[in-house]
Design a protein that fits this description.
elongated; SepF-like_sf; two-stranded parallel sheet; 3 helices; Cell_div_SepF/SepF-rel; 4-stranded mixed sheet; alpha/beta; Translation Initiation Factor IF3; single chain
Length: 148
């Protein structure tokens, strides 16, 4: 057929696989697995203890918005590190939910926290401040609102 040159390898019994290699040529053994040096462990630096100061009740701002347009007042005070009481009792149902969503984004972005004081009253507290339990009770009972 002309597929094999010069009759080479026509008879499989005559083929010697080792004949292709010279006798004095030795094959090197496969290299062993290279030693692996461990990577240095990267441990995060220990976080500094978070020291929270108790908020001065006189610095808490109470906002009673009538529309979503007053969200800016809430955001600016909170951004400045001032706790904000957000009383949504004068708002319509759709608008108050938008304002709560805004406050949740504000809290998430600035690492603060939000607490429901009553059904439509929320306390937004900046990251390193905490409102004491006695103050929360005064806010919930409405005592704080009578001061302003």
């Amino acid at each position: 057929m002309g597929l094999v040159e010069d009759g080479r390898y026509q008879d499989e019994d005559q083929y010697d696989a080792d004949a292709d290699f010279a006798d004095d040529e030795e094959l090197e053994p496969a290299p062993a697995v290279a030693p692996v040096s461990p990577l240095p462990t990267r441990r995060p630096a220990p976080a500094a203890p978070v020291v929270k100061e108790v908020a001065d009740l006189s610095r808490i701002v109470s906002v009673r918005p009538r529309s979503y347009n007053e969200a800016r007042v809430i955001g600016e005070n909170f951004r400045d590190g001032i706790p904000v009481i957000m009383n949504l009792s004068d708002m319509e149902d759709g608008e108050d939910k938008r304002l709560v969503d805004f406050a949740a984004g504000l809290i998430f972005g600035l690492k603060g926290n939000i607490e429901r004081v009553s059904s439509k009253v929320f306390l937004l507290c900046p990251q390193n401040l905490v409102v004491g339990p006695e103050d929360k009770e005064r806010i919930a009972s409405g005592g704080f609102f009578n001061q302003s």
